[in-house]
């Protein structure tokens, strides 16, 4: 199969969809891989790395779309790519169709075969192509929070781990899912005192079993949250109710109960945020302050660490890329129920009905 790896054109997106290791595996099996020049640069891969792995470098985005039977990307195609997508071409990437009707209509019109990373689903209901990005965001949440607690960036001026003779900082993590557990683990590693909240007792039992004793669990309700925020230094929002907006667990009036310089990191910002005062921010301007409380609400946190994120993402996407290349998309989907769930559009026909729910008709 002819496989294309374009440069990601979405603002601030530095990941690349296939690494030289992936190219090596594909070309070894006689597939042909076209990589747009400099596609891997921001993730640490030079054109020469791709050439040595067997890829052919192309100079333009148009050329990659023109030659490839399957385009493997990271983010959804943006407007200038719509016209490049051809009938029958396979596009394998994150689409998030629900957030853009224009994208959905463009892909239907193109008659392409669209397979969405975010809806590939394992038997147990987990989303294997989303999990690594939650892992990155969770670990980053603590790292960012620790940084913004420093005084020059208007935090409290607290070192999360403390030092001998000075107690460590207090971290609250709202949600004990993938993001929450990774955030708690990093905070615990720094030596902070961590309290992790959830409404799912199974998750709390699991956290209680695996975490060290300075990570404690709490049932998530307004009373408990109000009590803990008074002494918290860093609050991390990591809740998710699948298919719904995040519940507002920290309301505007609660900010006055926090001490000045408290930092709040809302990882759940992409689902509307779990703080009432959350508004989406970017890596260029990640924070803002309300009532002396620092808010960090970046919507694409993994984008800031493309070296790690590219490897974490391609570790899980590549087996599917290889399968599609070897068998063709139809046979790959028919033989793998997880991948089948990712099939959103087949030559303009909507397969994943969830897409239609968000359409304005
Ligand atoms: N900003 C970013 O760059 C970025 C990156 C990755 C993921 N995310 C987002 O992070 C959020 C969390 O993702 P995840 O993978 O950890 O989800 P997850 O499903 O693994 O975990 C969510 C947890 O929230 C819990 N929860 C639900 N309601 C709650 C409540 N009222 N109080 C406390 N806990 C509650 C659930 O029981 C679950 O354990 C999602 O919105 C996801 O989209 C953002």
CATH class category label of the largest domain: Alpha Beta
Order of helices and strands: EHEHEHEHEHEHEHEHEHEEEEHHHEEH
Question: Number of helical segments?
Answer: 13
Q: How many strand elements? A: 15
Note the main sheet: 8 strands, mixed
Residues in helices, as a percent range: 25-40%
Beta-sheet strand percentage?
15-25%
Mean pLDDT: 95
Shape: elongated
**Class of secondary structure makeup:** alpha/beta
Radius of gyration: 22 Å
Stated plainly, the CATH topology of the largest domain is called: Rossmann fold
Strand order of the biggest β-sheet: 3-2-1-4-5-6-14-15
Any idea how many domains?
2
Which ligands are bound?
nicotinamide-adenine-dinucleotide
Query: CATH H level of the largest domain: which superfamily?
Result: NAD(P)-binding Rossmann-like Domain
Which regions are unreliable across 5 or more consecutive residues at pLDDT < 50? none
Domain Alanine dehydrogenase/pyridine nucleotide transhydrogenase NAD(H)-binding: 149-297
Binding site for NAD(+): 134, 198, 203, 220, 239-240, 267-270, 279, 298-301
GO biological process, one term: L-alanine catabolic process
GO molecular function: alanine dehydrogenase activity; nucleotide binding
Give an overview in words.
By secondary structure, this protein is an alpha/beta fold. The chain folds into two domains: 2-120 and 306-357, 3-Layer(aba) Sandwich (Rossmann fold); 131-304, Rossmann fold (3-Layer(aba) Sandwich), CATH 3.40.50. It is built from 13 helices and 15 strands. The strands form two sheets. The protein has an eight-stranded mixed β-sheet, sandwiched between helices. It has a seven-stranded mixed β-sheet with strand order 9-8-7-10-11-13-12, with helices on both faces. α2 links the parallel β2 (32-36) and β3. The longest helix has 22 residues, at 306-327. The protein is elongated. Bound molecules: nicotinamide-adenine-dinucleotide. Pfam families: AlaDh_PNT_C, AlaDh_PNT_N. GO terms for molecular function: alanine dehydrogenase activity; nucleotide binding. Belongs to the AlaDH/PNT family. NAD(+) binds at residues 134, 198, 203, 220, 239-240, 267-270, 279, 298-301. It catalyses: L-alanine + NAD(+) + H2O = pyruvate + NH4(+) + NADH + H(+).
């Amino acid at each position: 199969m002819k496989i294309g790896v374009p440069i990601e054109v979405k603002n601030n997106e530095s990941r690349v969809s296939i690494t030289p290791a992936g190219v090596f595996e594909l070309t070894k099996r006689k597939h042909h891989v076209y990589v747009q020049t400099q596609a891997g640069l921001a993730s640490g891969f030079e054109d020469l790395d791709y050439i040595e792995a067997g890829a052919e470098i192309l100079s333009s985005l148009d050329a990659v779309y023109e030659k490839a039977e399957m385009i493997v990307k990271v983010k959804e195609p943006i407007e200038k790519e719509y016209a490049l997508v051809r009938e029958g071409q396979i596009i394998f990437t994150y689409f998030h169709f629900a957030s853009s009707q224009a994208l959905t209509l463009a892909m239907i019109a193109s008659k392409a075969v669209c397979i969405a990373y975010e809806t590939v689903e394992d038997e147990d209901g987990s989303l294997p192509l989303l999990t690594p990005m939650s892992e990155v965001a969770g670990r980053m949440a603590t790292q960012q929070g620790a940084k913004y607690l420093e005084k020059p960036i208007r935090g409290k001026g607290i070192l999360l781990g403390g030092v001998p003779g000075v107690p460590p900082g207090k971290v609250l993590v709202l949600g004990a899912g993938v993001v929450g557990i990774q955030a708690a683990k990093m905070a615990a590693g720094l030596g902070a005192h961590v309290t992790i909240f959830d409404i799912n007792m199974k998750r709390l039992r699991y956290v209680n079993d695996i975490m060290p004793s300075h990570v404690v669990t709490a049932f998530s309700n307004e009373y408990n949250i109000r009590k803990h925020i008074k002494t918290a230094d860093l609050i991390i929002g990591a809740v998710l109710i699948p298919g719904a907006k995040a519940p507002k667990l920290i309301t505007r009036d609660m900010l006055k109960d926090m001490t000045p310089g408290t930092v709040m990191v809302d990882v759940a910002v992409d689902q509307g945020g779990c703080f009432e005062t959350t508004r989406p921010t970017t890596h260029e301007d990640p924070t803002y302050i309300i009532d002396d409380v620092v808010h960090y609400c970046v919507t694409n946190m993994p984008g800031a660490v493309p070296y790690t994120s590219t490897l974490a993402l391609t570790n899980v996407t590549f087996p599917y890329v290889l399968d599609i290349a070897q068998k063709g998309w139809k046979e790959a989907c028919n033989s793998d129920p997880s991948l089948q769930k990712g099939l959103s559009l087949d030559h303009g026909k909507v397969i994943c009905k969830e897409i239609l729910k968000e359409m304005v008709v």
